[in-house]
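Hello,

I think I submitted the 2-amino-3-ketobutyric acid job twice by accident. Can you confirm which output corresponds to this input? Input:
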Amino acid sequence: MSKILITGASGQIGSVLSEKLKEKYGTENILATDLHHNPDYIGPFEVLDVTDFEALQTLVVNKGITQIYHLAAILSANGEKFPLNTWDINMKTFFNVLEVSRLHNIEKVFYPSSIAVFGNNVERVDTPQSSNLTPSTVYGMSKVAGENWAKYYTEKYGLDIRSIRYPGIIGYQSLPGGGTTDYAVDIFHKAINQEEFECFLGPDTMLPMIYMDDAIRATIELMEAPKEKLRIKTSYNLVGMSFTPETLASEIQQIHPNFKIRYQPDYRQQIADSWPMSIDDTDARKDWDWQPKYGLKRMIQDMFVNLNTPMPFTP
Ligand code: NAD
Ligand code: AKB
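Support: Only one job matched these inputs. Its output is below.
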């Protein structure tokens, strides 16, 4: 029986992934952890700062952990405010996960990478898996380094580490935690509250995104795929959809005709401009049969249905 520890479990992805993993493996077999206690969480939860090696090791040993999903990190936009701190946290937490996994024979580790690994020297349309990685943010630099360390531990110690370069994730279940793609979640909350939305990216900024349901399904499908089929030892490119703030806003206006957006690009514009506009995920499709289910229109409908807003048309 798998016993799974999740780091950063209270975050945008962790709070949704932990529910899915509880359904799949049973609540008692999932140990959610984060920096602070989460009073809303149902099931085993421990406060854990993953920069603390001893604390992580103690939990892994005492709870008989067999798999780790390592989600704890500082994201792109927040990361630029304190670059050295971001590097320290993102790298130290992953080193601790790698070392504890090596020492205690953890069967599988999940490591989330990001489209932030790409810099503006690559083809920005259908960015290939094998592009050169010269990121512009400290967050992206930490993800590139993390990918390479994952490959190193796989090759040197035989650790089974699986990884996805997530696009920006959009979901109704949780709020994002300081990234450049956050606008694409925030915009829905403004629309249902009938407030004007000030977008920190310009109207034409095309970025790769994915719906939360697809992102969680991709994660679990990758973790369950036969190991021998997985040729990419760093991290898989993954496609959901791509759109600009202007396109998203005009789709939202089909449902909320009074919705208003204005554009006030800030420092996050430069980050977004260094990222791909769309991604080529041929390897994920080949190796573990990845197929997204949500495009832009279906994602928007599902967001509004779940955010409890009346739908003025039949989906
Ligand atoms: P988030 O910011 O919402 O959550 C991260 C969680 O990590 C937070 O709850 C925070 O308290 C916790 N954390 C931070 N430092 C910690 C530490 N030292 N010890 C323990 N916990 C700590 O992030 P998210 O959006 O849920 O992202 C999860 C992972 O997925 C991250 O590694 C992120 O880089 C990656 N990712 C996310 C997206 C996205 O769009 N959400 C896209 C690409 C990659
Ligand atoms: C961010 O914007 O930092 C994240 C990501 C794409 O990694 N959403």
